[in-house]
Amino acid sequence: MGETAEPAVAPVAPVARLARRGARRWRLGLVWLAMLVALGAALGYDAFASHRPQSLDQQVAAIANQVRCPSCEDETAAMSGTQTAAAVRATIRQRLLAGQRQAQIEAYLESRYGPGILLRPPAGGLSGLVWVLPVAAAVAALAGLAVAFRRWRPTTAAPLNDEERALLDQARRG
After folding, report:
1. Which of 112, 123, 165, 170 is at 20 to 30 A from 88, Cα to Cα?
2. Which alpha helices (H) appear in 51-82, and where do they start and end?
3. For position 103, which CATH number holds?
């Protein structure tokens, strides 16, 4: 039986190998840049959108969505149709018209109905961990990724031999 000849594979020129490695790094850099631009755009839009002037009805709805209905379970004052929820919304409207800020209105409602009226946990004390732990976890995850990427990166490039150096010099010249 005859032997089958394997197709000859031309060795990849060292210059082409270096060019491919450089192109791969550029593509990876462009992907990271695109992700950073998208993240910056999203954060910028959110910051801009949250500072737009709102109508009185929008302000009432925003605060009522942060307040629990006093007579309902698992409903906000904005969603509930009970008389107590309507009274809470009317109180919010009156206090906004009087010039009070959201924090003042929430403090009044908390003093009248108790600390369970607010859906957002307080930012201080032991419950402040609810706000701090996700941020700390995200920072730790990013640090872990940075360490992993640093370990995965090759430490040094293989030195060029004389033939590869001559090809590289020739490519640079012409």
Report:
1. 123
2. 56-64
3. 1.10.8.640
Rounded to an integer, what distance in angstroms lies between the CA atom of residue 97 and that of residue 142? 45
* N-terminal to C-terminal alpha carbon distance within the chain: 49
Range of the domain at 142: 126-150
Region of 21 on the Ramachandran plot (φ > 0 left; ψ -120 to 50 alpha; else beta): alpha
Per-residue pLDDT of the chain (174 residues; tens, 9 = 90+): 555 555 555 555 666 666 676 777 777 778 888 888 988 888 777 777 666 657 888 888 899 998 988 888 788 888 988 998 899 999 999 999 999 998 899 999 999 988 888 887 666 677 777 778 888 999 999 999 998 888 887 666 777 888 888 888 888 887
> How far apart are the C-alpha atoms of 75 and 119, rounded to whole Å?
10
User: Could you give the CA distance from residue 89 to residue 64 in angstroms, rounded to a whole number?
Assistant: 6
| Per-residue b or e along 26-38, where b marks 16 or more CB atoms closer than 10 Å to that residue's CB | eeeeeeeeeeeee
Any idea what DSSP says for residue 81? -
The predicted model scores a pTM of 0.47
Q: Structure tokens of 113?
A: 């109905």
State the residue for tokens 């005859």: 2
